[in-house]
Design brief:
355 residues, alpha/beta, Rossmann fold, 2 domains, 3-stranded antiparallel β-sheet, 43% helix, 19% strand, globular, binds S-adenosylmethionine
Length: 355
């Protein structure tokens, strides 16, 4: 299969449709820098979230009007059920008037487009809908990562679908799982609130100098727990969205994951090392795992183990971006200037401003 729209249809669109519920259950925590960008937008701004997935960013800034779009009907349906205003469409052809948005975000989407021409066309389409003076924020998965080494820029990344999410599996189980996740998040939220209240009582009763350290411990504890209970539970760790979270304590998880890799004992391993260069021919997950060095045996064993346990593996196509590549691409859109470039948790990111 060539690097074309057909490849994206087979290894992006169809895959997200099949994994939508599982994927959505692992995506609920907005990343701080993206939330910051959204919260920086003035009251009543109109914002587009292109490739919004389950809409986790659509409600971040309640004082703005945020419209989501995505090519995956199943994810859009989840976002719609949450009360968001969304549309199913391709990011190459957005159903919006020229210049109608004050800001645009596009998080972890254009790395799923398989040619430079298509990635540029998507950026041009986003700049088209942005008004003059408006800002856009784009994230793409980086080739330069501490925990992963890519043999090529065009790669297949596995998603291991838990059996309970498989088509034909009892829908009760899936919705039970979603309810359980929602309950767990609510419990964590209440616990966090309780801790904050306790902390505020402590700080009222103690000397001023103690306040900062109490705050630090509580915040880091909570984020640590959230990370472990939340995203990690999905175990599809090779995804860019599961890149290690924003807090300092997360460094411990990074170490933790690394240790698990070495032990070769869970599905996390397969997800971490089971990334294969795309060579124009689709192979099954086992072959993909075997093609990889340096953890070949480990990945193959892990993949086998998962298959035996009823997991289905889907391969998602990614073009991982090298340093500077996103800026270079955006600079081909003549009506935008890059005002910031940064690296955020395994992603290259740019903020552009429309002239
Ligand atoms: C990694 S997810 C990111 C979702 C969301 N932006 C987030 O940060 O949670 C990639 C998303 O891109 C969407 N996508 C892939 N190709 C697309 C296209 N050509 N047009 C619109 N959306 C696309 C997928 O359906 C999926 O929801």
């Amino acid at each position: 299969m060539e690097l074309t729209a057909d490849l994206e249809h087979e290894h992006v669109h169809k895959v997200y449709s099949q994994i939508a519920t599982h994927f959505s259950d692992t995506r609920f925590k907005p990343w701080p820098r993206i939330a910051q960008f959204l919260n920086d937008q003035p009251v009543s701004s109109i914002i587009a979230d292109v490739g919004c997935g389950n809409g986790k960013y659509l409600g971040v800034n309640q004082s703005t009007y945020c419209l989501g779009s995505d090519i995956c009907p199943e994810l859009i349906s989840i976002a719609n059920d949450r009360g968001h205003e969304v549309a199913v469409c391709d990011c190459l052809q957005l159903p919006y008037r020229t210049g109608m948005f004050d800001a645009v975000i596009c998080i972890a989407v254009i790395h799923h487009l398989s040619t430079e021409e298509r990635r540029l066309a998507a950026l041009r389409e986003m700049t088209r809908i942005l008004r003059s003076g408006g800002h856009m924020l784009v994230y793409v998965w980086a080739m330069e990562q501490e925990r992963k080494q890519f043999e090529a820029q065009d790669v297949m990344v596995p998603w291991h679908l838990q059996p309970k999410y498989a088509k034909g599996a009892s829908q009760e189980k899936v919705s039970q799982k979603s309810t359980d996740n929602a309950r767990m998040r609510e419990r964590k939220r209440l616990k966090k609130k309780q801790k904050k209240q306790q902390k505020s009582q402590v700080s009222q009763a103690s000397a001023v100098g103690h306040e900062d350290s109490t705050e630090l411990n509580l915040t880091e504890d909570t984020s640590h727990t959230e990370y472990l209970l939340g995203d990690l539970s999905a175990l599809n760790l090779s995804d860019e969205d599961l890149a290690i979270g924003p807090h300092k304590t997360i460094g411990e998880e990074s170490h933790e994951l690394h240790r698990t890799d070495v032990e070769c004992s869970t599905e996390a391993i397969a997800n971490n090392v089971d990334i294969a260069p795309y060579k124009g021919k689709i192979t099954n997950s086992h072959e993909l795992a075997q093609r990889n060095s340096p953890n070949d045996d480990c990945a193959a064993n892990a993949s086998n183990g998962l298959e035996k346990r009823g997991y289905q593996t889907f391969q998602r196509y990614y073009h991982v971006f090298q340093r500077g590549e996103l800026v270079q691409l955006l600079s081909k859109c003549t009506d935008v200037v890059v005002i910031e470039e940064f690296y955020d948790h395994e992603n290259w990111c740019v903020i552009g401003k429309k002239l």
